[in-house]
Task: structure prediction
Amino acid sequence: MRAGLWWMGLWLYGGVLAAASAQPVDPVVMTVLGPVPAAQLGLALTHEHVLVDWIGAEQSGPHRWDRDAVARRVRPHLDRARELGVQAFVDCSPAHLGRDPQLLRLLSRQTGLHVVTNTGLYAARGGRHVPEAAKQMPPAQLAAGWVTEWRDGIDGTDVRPGFIKIGVNGQRKTDDTDACHDATGRFFALNALDRRVVAAAAIAHRDTGLTVASHTANADPVEQMAIFAAHGVAPDALVWVHAQRRPVEDAVELARQGLWISYDNVAKPRVGDYLQRLAAMKQAELLHRVLLSHDSGWYTAGEPNGGDRVRGYDALLTDLIPAIQARGVLTDDELHQVLVDNPAQAFAVRPRLLAESP
Ligand SMILES: [Zn+2]
Result:
């Protein structure tokens, strides 16, 4: 009898301890309207744009576009995506390249989409989107500016970033942003500015828990992972943007190490390529690392009514998914994983540190 009570007491005490330590803190994704539980993010497009401004960091700014005109042109595409089942939209236009938190907040309110914007710095395209004052800044100073945006809001607003967007250029001298490797098929090594920006992203990740999405046109994702590791940050804090520019074997190898693979240029003519990549990732049991999106939008500042590069955000829903289902490439559960679970997991705000990190 006494022994039974003793065990019951221990059992009750254990229950109290478990309740105290479990205190579940549901992870959130930070949208332009505030935090959303990651589990409620829904079907997400993880790499899109509303607006871009290519003029360069020193000249770019909201004086270059009319928010209402941009919203009028882009909103029908967002509404269409919403009708097709999209619930969340990650805007990847970086600072000094068309990022406009007020525009995104306006469109989020108009469309009902969860919209996510970013902090960070885009050092691709020869560094022309990096302000002169930032070009020689040490990583800690760059990171401090991004952490301030996370804490206080962007550009005098209270809109907070939901991830860190960086771009790296590599040591290639030309402006060719599409070549992803040299003649031997190797990645390009990072240049000095790239390395500072990547290090800053790792530092800012430690302070904020924000995921880092790196536009990696022709530069080495392995080197970026190594810089993250040197700062104690795990590979799953990093999204390899535009991974479709490299053979799927590279994605398999790096996803195995924990990197997020962003296949973000879905369009009707490329459906076959995406089917093959998805099948290969499934075969390798790596679907849990894959993100899909269009890299669409592209209202271009300085061009009449945004120019002629504005594309919709629908091919994933109208072309790729039906092809996936028709050919049985992925089950419905696997599709849900890629389109809903993975974005929530990838963009949930939480530090991802290596176990042995300092
Ligand atoms: Zn993009």
Remarks:
- The chain has eleven helices and 13 strands.
- The domain at 42-347 is CATH 3.20.20.140 (TIM Barrel).
- The pocket of zinc ion is lined by residues 47, 49, 92, 295 (CB under 6 Å).
- The CA atoms of residues 251 and 261 lie 6 Å apart.
